[in-house]
Amino acid sequence: MSDSTALSAKDLIAQYGGIALDKQNDLSAVIGDNNWTVDLSEGVISFGDQLTFPIQIMGTFSHSSETFLWGWANTQSDLPENLLQQAAQLKAYGEEHQLPLFTTGQFECAINDVHYIGLIASGMFGSSAYYVADYGSGALLVTIKSEVVDKVRTDSPQRVLTVFPQLISLFEMDHQQALASYLKAKAFDVIMKEKELSATYNGSTIVATFDELHRLASLNGQLS
Q1: How much is the pTM?
Q2: Which terminus, N or C, of the chain has the lesser number of Cβ atoms within 10 Å?
Q3: Domain termination residue (choose one: 151, 166, 188)
């Protein structure tokens, strides 16, 4: 991704990245080591014989060319229109807010950028999770909506202490903004100061400090 694209999307990954990455833990707990299959005519992804979830297609990543192709730009594959609604909404959002990440049909990227898009899309649309379905020569990025995944969601404050450091190690963002958004999405009451954040939920407290550039300096929890 170009610098301008990355900067344009930083607010979105900060707003949605924490809770979206949190949800990936729920998906992993549900699907385990099951292999995946996709049925585009039915609009579903299956993991083993018992788990089948509706999907929206974001796009595909090519390992050989290291490019991402948005679903709405993939005219050769004749993808079902009803599976491209979220991708089309992201394109419209990108056009409105001048975000090339969402409006450039195909662009060079790394596989980590595919997860970046997945986190933003999952967060924006309130999905249960996203999934990168690797098929050898490339990978299909989809969002998933499933009550099965939603039901295993945990409000454990402990997860914040593991998920958030992972998030900021993977992507550039305003750490203070990202942590506040993540905690609010998990129903914490958040109090912000210049270089400090404190949050409480159901008897648990999380306190974080930041440097002058809003980078995380410390993250601690008193968990009930």
Answers
A1: 0.92
A2: C
A3: 151
pLDDT tens digit string along 118-154?
999 999 999 999 999 999 999 999 999 999 999 988 7
**What region, left, alpha or beta, does residue 97 occupy, with left being phi > 0 and alpha being psi -120 to 50 degrees?**
alpha
Spatial separation of the C-alpha atoms in residues 104 and 221, rounded to whole Å: 41
The rounded distance, in Å, linking the Cα atoms of 123 and 16 is 5
Cβ 26 vs Cβ 154: under 8 Å? yes
Domain that holds residue 56: 3-151
How does pLDDT run across 154-199, given as a tens digit for each residue? Answer: 777 889 999 999 999 999 999 999 999 999 999 999 999 989 999 9
Whole-number Å distance between alpha carbons of 150 and 54? 13
222 is written with which tokens?
């008193």
Q: Which of 131, 151, 171 finishes a domain?
A: 151
Residues 6+ apart with CB under 8 A from 159: 22, 25
Q: Give the CA angle between residues 69, 117, 177 to the nearest 5°.
A: 155
